[in-house]
Design goal:
The protein is an alpha/beta fold and 303 residues long. It has eleven helices and ten strands. The chain has a domain of 204 residues: Rossmann fold (3-Layer(aba) Sandwich). A hairpin with a 6-residue loop joins β1 and β2. α4 packs across α5.
Length: 303
């Protein structure tokens, strides 16, 4: 079944970030988040930027959003996490607004298989290494010799791979990952395995999924109307090879939720990157995105 990305209102999608609880809509029979926050009036909706796209090295169309600021010397590029997209990871939590208020030019792609980008179902079209090539192609597309790069969860792995390849990343922020990057080469599959995520994405009924952490990703995918087959293809190609963290020269900020099981022992990761410092946020893997300090810490580090 094709994705239904436009079936969710912005306010309901935004509620997915901080809310850990879900219920089933009696009218539509879909899983949706509980939220006590009222819908914002249309006039208060965040700036979604201008939309465009480029063609990746393998011919896939990658969508992105852009916000123009007063300081365009070094653009900021934001890469979201698994099952999310640029809006839910960066716009609704206020990260883009904070960067824009600081005058920064911002680009935020939807990774292949996510958001408005093309979503093939062939697993060979996926993996963080492939997304790394997409991100470098975006740098070329916007003519950026140097960028400030921010990545969360899956996006953090992509950002680390990019930063380890050369000097094109001036400053780096990574979040939602911890010791698993050092010990496994990617997002910590000891906490939630690829097989569990793939099974959850393919399950007929999300509420019947017994693995709580895998179920959370399925509910996020359902809440955003994502293409679950494309997400399963990405899950089957999660990065699990050593990353040359010692080659990263950019000053790096490591952000981790204090109850995030996917970002345990983040000090191990910070110690493995030459010029890194660690800052803890409040919340678990999805909840940390809602910590109001997130945006301020990113802006401060990239200043």
């Amino acid at each position: 079944m094709p994705p239904t990305r436009r079936s969710r209102s912005p306010a309901r999608a935004a509620a997915f970030v901080p809310s850990p609880a879900y219920r089933r809509s009696p009218r539509h029979g879909r899983v949706r988040p509980l939220s006590s926050r009222p819908a914002e009036p249309q006039s208060r909706q965040p700036d979604r930027g201008s939309e465009s796209s480029f063609i990746a090295p393998d011919g896939l169309r990658i969508a992105y959003r852009r916000w123009v600021g007063s300081d365009g010397r070094v653009p900021v590029v934001l890469h979201h996490g698994f099952a999310a997209n640029a809006l839910i990871n960066w716009v609704f939590p206020g990260v883009v607004a904070a960067l824009s208020a600081a005058g920064r030019w911002v680009w935020a792609p939807d990774a292949r298989g996510h958001g408005r980008s093309e979503s093939p179902h062939d697993p060979d079209r996926y993996g963080e290494a492939v997304m790394t090539r997409d991100l470098i192609a975006l740098f070329d597309e916007i003519g950026a010799a140097e960028v400030d790069l921010v990545g969360y969860s899956m996006g953090a792995i992509v950002a680390l791979l990019v930063a380890a390849q050369g000097r094109r990343v001036r400053r780096l922020v990574i979040g939602g990952v911890g010791a698993g990057v050092v010990e496994l080469g990617g997002v910590d599959t000891r906490v939630v395995s690829s097989d569990a995520i793939i099974a959850a994405l393919g399950a007929p009924d999300a509420e019947a999924i017994t693995d709580e952490r895998a179920r959370a990703f399925r509910q996020l995918a359902d809440g955003l109307g994502a293409d679950r087959q494309a997400l399963a293809a990405q899950a089957s190609r999660r990065h699990a090879q050593p990353i040359a963290l010692e080659r990263i020269l950019a000053p790096t900020l490591v952000l981790a939720g204090d109850t995030d099981p996917l970002a345990t022992r983040p000090e191990v990761l910070a110690a493995a990157i030459p010029h890194a410092r660690l800052q803890l946020l409040s919340g678990d893997h999805m909840g940390a995105i809602g910590d109001p300090r997130l945006a301020a810490l990113i802006v401060e580090h990239l200043a």
